[in-house]
Amino acid sequence: MSNLETSAQVLTCEDGSHEDSNAVEILTPREVPLGGLRAMRVRRTLPQRQRSLIGAWCFADHYGPDDVRESGGMSVAPHPHTGLQTVSWLFAGEIEHRDSIGSHAMVVPGQLNLMTAGSGIAHSEVSTTNTTVLHGMQLWLALPARSRNTAPAFEHYEPTPVTVSGARISVFLGTLTGSSSPVNTFSPLLGAEIVLEPGARITLDVDERFEHGAIVDTGRVEMCGTALARAELGYVAPGRQSLDLRNPGSEPARLLLLGGEPLGEQILMWWNFVGRSDAEIREYREQWQSEVGGNTDDPQFGTVVGYVGGWIPAPELPTTALKPRG
Fold first, then answer.
1. N or C: fewer beta carbons within 10 Å in the chain?
2. Where, by residue number, does Fe cation bind (predicted)?
3. Strand 10-13's sheet: what is its strand order?
């Protein structure tokens, strides 16, 4: 998914691995329109001033359930990415993915689509005519410095859910409760969907080197004794060997559990680019604008074959140098 905010903010992101592992920090989302008069609106919990990284997780949008007759669905024209991986996970609906390395795939509930941007890629995302309700998560992973210029790639994976103590767990990245994902990542990570039956409580053994975040999709969830509302993210710092999750409600609850070793690096995010310096971000933008205008014989991002329509131009950069925040 593209960050379609018309005034793209500059974020310099750092990990918070020095914090208290016993505390649960609550991050409240902000609502963001994804462009246009009939813009699909998303709830964004990462990044924000309070916290910008959980391991390598650097971006999290939660959307729906939306009736596409009213919202217009998802229609994101070709746009670029660098220095990251996109993680698409749906609860309802269907999205058609196309990218500039020739990938053409459908994003459907319970199946992971992971796109590695690396040195540069372009892609489009459009909800299909089969979709009446659209509901899901779009997440980004920052690539560490040693891997951020890797070749672009695309992977698809359907995890087999396991049931433990009233919880249905689908591990799409990393390892949890004995289930492991074969999908390639560039730093130690965890990503899993967890559905808790009414009244269920589960204690998960986790890697104490990881920091973790739980984003609530539906229902009531308590994380280590702290209540989380819908679309809120509960964060815990490294140092825990287990996480306690509970559904105190009378209806099933669903959440995504994200985790990873603190990245240990500062990253600069602007629009759809992850880089390390002002000069680098400006170079990415200039290159993309050249490709949109058909003014280059040496494309970095490439062409999205099969998409009918225009590409998304980059927003204007500030005239002053991009500087770290906070």
1. C
2. 79, 81, 123, 125
3. 10-13, 267-270, 273-275
Q: Binding site membership for Fe cation: which residues?
A: 79, 81, 123, 125
Is the pLDDT at 325 greater than 50? The verdict is no
143 falls within a domain: yes
Asked if 284 and 245 count as a contact pair (C-beta separation under 8 A), the reply is no
DSSP letter (8 states) at residue 279 = H
Residue 298 near residue 291, CB atoms below 8 Å = no
Domain that holds residue 213: 10-260
Residue 105 falls inside a structural domain:
yes
Burial class (CB in 10 A: 0-12, 13-18, 19+), 303: middle
Alpha carbons 97 and 240: distance in angstroms, whole number: 37
Q: Is 176 helix (H, G, I), strand (E, B) or coil?
A: strand
Give per-residue pLDDT as tens, 106-159. Answer: 999 999 999 999 999 999 999 999 999 999 999 999 999 999 999 999 999 999
Q: Identify whether the C-beta of residue 196 lies closer than 8 Å to the C-beta of residue 224.
A: no
Paired tokens of 241: 């060997």
CB 190 within 8 A of CB 177: no
